[in-house]
Amino acid sequence: MAIKMKKYLALILALVMVFAVALTGCGTTEDTGDVTQGTDDQGDATVADDGEEETPEDEVTVMSYEEYMAAELDSEVTIEAYVQAKQSWWEDTVTLYTQDEDGAYFVYSAACTEEDYDKIEVGTKVRVTGYKSEWSGEIEIMDGTFEIIDDGDTYVAEPMDVTSLLGTDELIDYQNRLVTFTGLTVEDSGDGAAFLYNWDGSGTDGNDLYFNASVNGQTYTFTVESDLCDNTTDVYAAVKNLQVGDVIDMEGFLYWYEGVNPHITSVVVK
Predict the structure, then answer these.
(1) What are the structural domains of the chain?
(2) At CA 105, angle to CA 161 and CA 120, rounded to 5?
């Protein structure tokens, strides 16, 4: 009887312990549920906080000219500048000569719709994103996109006379800027000609014009880029009328190709 009673007591005790464990387990589950619920609440709060806060648009870091020049080649760059000239629209791209008060940027073949192309005027402010590249000494932005910044801010650069810098290491510091050259003498470009169609004379009317001019005993090559100034422009006609020995003043952009090779937009015979 005692044994049976012990068995009964043991059984009862076991049942009590099982029940207690079950209760503890349920309590733990409920607590865990509460914790989980709390976590969910916290998550909901975070979502709520995010929902309440205004999500700022992705900020674009616009580089200064100094930062742009210091950037590594092939790195992505974003600049803001003002269009000083544009080449002809071609296959949904445009090449821009841009400048601000600190320096100039040559934007090569940026994606551009014809509609946007028609909106671009001298002085138009643009934001350009692309990759800083170098082509035979010319620093440029390639594979770029741009947007017109219509905030009423415009800028038209005054040309800088760099005649005295020709032949110096300092000249490249003004690459791509709008510049002037004064008092240069037209030299023979080959077989007594004052200019050539294309660099090697292989072109015809409507192609780029190349001509040589000298100052201080040094001769330099200048180009009328036909995509910038075609054969209907005054500068194209002026270069075709040059004679070897003419003394000229010029205006254009300080382009670089294996050395200085300006893109000329104006020629005046003195």
Answers:
(1) 65-148 (2.40.50.140), 160-269 (2.40.50.140)
(2) 100
